[in-house]
Design brief:
By secondary structure, the protein is an all-alpha fold. Helix content is 77%, strand content 1%.
Length: 433
């Protein structure tokens, strides 16, 4: 590993750039970019579209189920090994798809299993841990910058891979994707350092500590706790509940909002524009969240705001189906979503500390994927039985608000007792509301 301390620049900025690139290549290319490649592949090979859909769903489920494993590995071994191994798996999987997809079964295994495991180990969860390990005072802005890679990559990667297909074919597009994943593995191997102390650095950089006396006094006392102790925290379940509400309404909107709008007499082009506005304002929300100081607005308040804003936007669309109002409401939902995507890892870090971030986030992480898999199914069943999407949307909005509120009134666990007392009791005391 060539990572080393430099007196010219805080190495955490280099780590942030690496994390951004990993998220851009390993997640954006494989979640958004290859969707256009798959459309060309289906035409060329005659594969059943349902098989491609099953492969994508399988990959998503595997990523979610790996959350606990990845959290454990990262907490024990750091981020470098998972990033290198996961990126290499992604590169191998892409090459296999390009060269050996002789049947739908091969494609399902290559995409669903190999790429699912690769994205699980070298994806968003690991990038969030990187930011948590290297930043403290500047963590909100650093987290926001890292997570913009998803929105930017989601916009650029489909255009790039579509251009590659237009000048060659779908197999070359998969090879290009393999190359960027391999590049991610090489950069991680050469330059990624697990923690600041490994190379003689400190969180946020020594210059930040010299220039800010308050920051110099920050000594976060959050001892490493067991999973059993984590499960005894009331705040842990409230964060999980919030995540359930957010995931439920988000996937319901992504899956059915356009269908609802078209069925309500809105032109399909306008419905598509509303989804685009949601994505665009999500990027804006992420950036804004990075400039919000935790001592001014607490991150657990922000994840509550995420649920409420998405629910409010959806309710406005249902009750006032005017095209201009729909655009505004979609923007409100997107802005809240972007705020929540950055504020969630900040909330986990604030409540359980850096020492337990990977562990806690790894356990909470699968919620997004489980709800993402079953949420739209529930909405579809309800809409089919009721004959409309309006009432299911109202129910989903109400659930999102109810799930989002408790965490806003949750106080931090008490980490003030000495470690030996903590070990004897094996439980953290949490302030009552």
């Amino acid at each position: 590993m060539l990572a080393r301390k430099t007196n010219k620049i805080f190495y955490g900025y280099i780590i942030l750039a690496i994390g951004w690139f990993i998220y851009f290549t390993n997640v954006s290319f494989l979640l958004y970019g290859v969707t256009v490649v798959n459309s060309h592949m289906v035409i060329a090979t005659g594969f059943d579209e349902s098989s491609v859909g099953f492969a994508v769903s399988l990959s998503t489920v595997i990523q979610g189920l790996l959350g606990v494993v990845v959290g454990f590995v990262v907490s024990k071994k750091g981020t470098r090994i998972p990033c290198v191994a996961g990126s290499l798996l992604l590169a191998i999987g892409c090459i296999l798809i390009a060269t050996m997809s002789l049947s739908e079964g091969f494609f399902v295994f290559f995409y669903g299993v190999i790429l699912g495991v690769g994205m699980g180990f070298a994806g968003m969860l690991t990038v969030q841990v990187m930011v948590n390990e290297w930043f403290n005072k500047n963590k909100p802005l650093a987290m926001a910058i890292a997570l913009t890679a998803g929105s930017i990559g989601g916009f650029l990667s489909p255009l790039l891979l579509e251009w590659v297909v237009s000048i060659s074919n779908w197999k070359i597009a998969w090879i290009v994707t393999a190359f960027v994943c391999l590049l991610s593995a090489v950069i991680s191997f050469l330059f990624l350092a697990d923690k600041p102390e490994d190379i003689g650095e400190v969180k946020d950089g020594a210059k930040a500590h010299r220039n800010d006396n308050e920051n110099e006094e920050i000594k976060e006392y959050a001892p490493e706790i067991t999973i059993k102790s984590l499960f005894k925290q009331r705040s842990f379940y409230r964060i999980c509940l919030n995540y359930c509400g957010k995931s439920l309404i988000y996937y319901a909107v992504v899956g059915y909002l356009a269908i609802f709008l078209v069925s309500s007499g809105i032109e399909s082009s306008a419905a598509a524009k509303s989804i685009s506005l949601l994505s665009l304002l999500s990027l804006f929300g992420r950036v804004i969240c990075g400039f919000i100081k935790e001592n001014f607005i607490k991150p657990n308040w922000l994840i509550t705001f995420c649920n409420i804003s998405m629910a409010a936007g959806l309710l406005v669309i249902i009750t006032l189906p005017n095209i201009d109002i729909i655009y505004i409401a979609s923007g409100i939902m997107g802005f809240g979503l972007g705020i929540g995507q950055v504020a969630m890892p900040l909330t986990i870090s604030r409540f359980f500390g850096s020492a337990n971030f990977a562990k806690a986030n790894g356990i909470i992480w699968p919620i997004n994927y489980v709800i993402g898999a079953i949420g739209p199914i529930i909405v579809g069943i309800m809409a089919g039985s009721m004959g409309t999407y309006a009432l299911p949307f109202m129910i989903i909005a109400a659930v999102a608000i109810v799930c989002g509120l408790p965490v806003a009134f949750t106080k931090l666990p008490d980490f003030s007792r000495p470690p030996e007392e903590e070990n004897r009791s094996a439980i953290l005391i949490e302030d009552e509301n």
